[in-house]
Amino acid sequence: MSGIIETAGLSRFYPGDGAPVRAVDGVDMSVAEGESVSVMGPSGCGKSTLLHLVGGLERPTAGTVTIAGQRVDGLSEAAWARLRRRSVGFVFQAFHLVDELSAVENVELPALLVGTSRRAARRRAMELLERLGVADRATHLPDRLSGGQQQRVALARALVNEPVLVLADEPTGNLDSHATGEILRLFAGLREARQTLLLVTHDPRVAASADRLLTMRDGQIVEDTRLDGGLPRQAVLAQIAGWEA
Ligand SMILES: Nc1ncnc2c1ncn2[C@@H]1O[C@H](COP(=O)(O)OP(=O)(O)OP(=O)(O)O)[C@@H](O)[C@H]1O
């Protein structure tokens, strides 16, 4: 059965001083529906670029991306915008919140854009803010929120339309361990709802919470480790600690 994400020979090269920088270099990847997959690897190995290619924020130099059976690497910007609004939730390293809108207005915006009623959008937005522990900040503008609070609002916004695919770049980067725990619980809920999660992280605890761990080096996936019932999580944490050191 084909996965919700399939890539074949996926590559993205950037011009360098001499030879091009091979940010992503011939990645063949298959992620099944409902699976959560974390991507780790040293700084600059191509993790964010891979996520951007899958989410249509960058165009491949070569290779293909298929989401839910549809080739997406050649889609127009407008088609990508529609797909992202409905089916692909993206959590960026920078939060991209709308400065003029309150936290709850930011979260409900994508729901209103796909025609959800005001009342249902507000209910869903508040529910997510509550689950992420930031409901008491719902009426604040982004510049009145801490980095970690903005990050959780951005995550709530990515999830408001219950996308089939969630792409997250360092979703716990600014968070303390309590808030990280809340996000991990939310991610566990995605799995129950058969939503698929592809996330880039430097946090071994976050990585080990996924079903599968992909390790990247120099633009390539060099290890693909199954964590659900495969390797004990402690062994994975030790393995990660080894190459992060
Ligand atoms: N727009 C760009 N132009 C030129 N080079 C780029 C561009 N974006 C990324 N790169 C280069 O591509 C390589 C991979 O970058 P990428 O951001 O994907 O790495 P990463 O693994 O996510 O790093 P980090 O963990 O530090 O966020 C790096 O060498 C980077 O300098």
Structure description:
It holds the Pfam family ABC_tran. GO terms for molecular function: ATP binding; ATP hydrolysis activity; transmembrane transporter activity. By secondary structure, the protein is an alpha/beta fold. The chain has a domain at 97-149. Helix content is 36%, strand content 25%. The chain contains eight helices and ten strands. The strands form two sheets. Strands 6-7-8-3-9-10 form a six-stranded mixed beta sheet, sandwiched between helices. Strand 9 (212-217) and strand 10 form a beta hairpin. Helix 3 packs across helix 4 (118-131) and helix 3 packs parallel to helix 5. The longest helix has 16 residues, at 177-192. It is globular, with a radius of gyration of 18 Å. The chain starts with a strand and ends with a helix. The mean pLDDT is 89. Bound molecules: adenosine-5'-triphosphate. Adenosine-5'-triphosphate (ATP) binds at residues 14, 21, 23, 41, 43-49.
Quickly list its features.
single chain; 245 residues; six-stranded mixed sheet; 8 helices; 25% strand; globular; binds adenosine-5'-triphosphate; MacB-like_ATP-bd; ATP hydrolysis activity; P-loop_NTPase
Question: What percent of the residues sit in helical stretches (DSSP H or I)?
Answer: 25-40%
Main pleated sheet: 6 strands, mixed
The side-by-side strand order for the widest beta sheet comes to 6-7-8-3-9-10
Listing every helix as H and every strand as E from the N terminus to the C terminus, the arrangement reads EEEHEEHEHHHEHEHEEH
Total number of beta strands: 10
